[in-house]
Amino acid sequence: MALSDVFYAIQDFSETVLLAPFNGLRSLELESWTAANFMNWVFFFILIVAFVYWMKELKTYNENNEEDRSSTSHSFLGDDTYDTDY
After folding, report:
1. Domain-located, residue 16
2. How many CA atoms lie within 13 A of 65 on its CB side?
3. Which pTM was predicted?
């Protein structure tokens, strides 16, 4: 058994088993645009829910003043009296 046979087996398993649902959705492409893009709609819905949750959490932290808003990454961002002697 050659090493290339292992890779061909992985390819065959991926195409016939793992991607079979997507091949089924591909056959719907000519019948219904919405049904063909079902997975896109699912991922879009998950994205919207995650975005709303994240904005809600940011609003909560902002209202509680839990965020450290000091500029410490560079001294010249928040302080006018930085050292100019080089």
Report:
1. yes
2. 1
3. 0.48
